[in-house]
Specification:
This protein is mostly helical and about 160 residues long. Helix content is about 75%, strand content about 0%. It has a domain at about 1-55: Arc Repressor Mutant, subunit A (Orthogonal Bundle). Helix 1 packs across helix 2 (about 20-30).
Length: about 160
């Protein structure tokens, strides 16, 4: 067994709560591993310290008074809020999701609006550069003449 598994079993071993096979594997590991053996000794020392502590009897009616106080105590508004925790958490989750969606819609609109204004500016620039006002009367066999014919402006002679 690994040391991590053994350290989880030390308390159960001290309380004599292990099955026979687990106990055998535990004791085999403890014989070979000084670190786990040292940890077992520390847990045993703490266990013996608590076992040897003096016990004091509770005053007469102590348990009854404590239980009565627990039952009579009115929960605070904060505690009542947390008893509705599943509802409260769901409401917060829904609100958070709605906020994220609204932010997404607005940012998407801003991106699209910015893009369309840039596209429109580029289109206006392109249209201005190909405007017929920029061309002089050109011979029909030139590039300008071909453009004028394609645009359907006719002969300007």
């Amino acid at each position: 067994m690994k040391c991590s598994q053994i350290t989880k079993m030390i308390s159960r071993y001290v309380d004599d709560d292990l099955g026979p096979e687990e106990k055998r594997l535990f004791e085999l590991h403890i014989q070979d591993c000084s670190g786990c053996r040292h940890e077992l000794e520390e847990v045993r020392a703490v266990h013996e310290l608590f076992a040897s502590a003096e016990r004091f009897p509770a005053p007469y009616g102590f348990t009854t008074r404590v239980m009565a106080n627990l039952e009579a105590k009115e929960p605070s508004w904060l505690w009542q809020l947390f008893t509705l925790r599943p509802f409260f958490l769901r409401a917060v989750e829904v609100a958070f999701a709605l906020i994220i969606m609204i932010i997404g819609v607005f940012s998407g609109n801003l991106l699209v609006a910015d893009r369309t204004s840039k596209t429109q500016a580029v289109q206006a620039t392109v249209q201005e550069s190909f405007s017929l006002d920029l061309f002089q009367a050109t011979p029909p066999d030139s590039v300008g003449g071909a453009y004028v014919r394609l645009m359907g402006a006719g002969d300007e002679r």
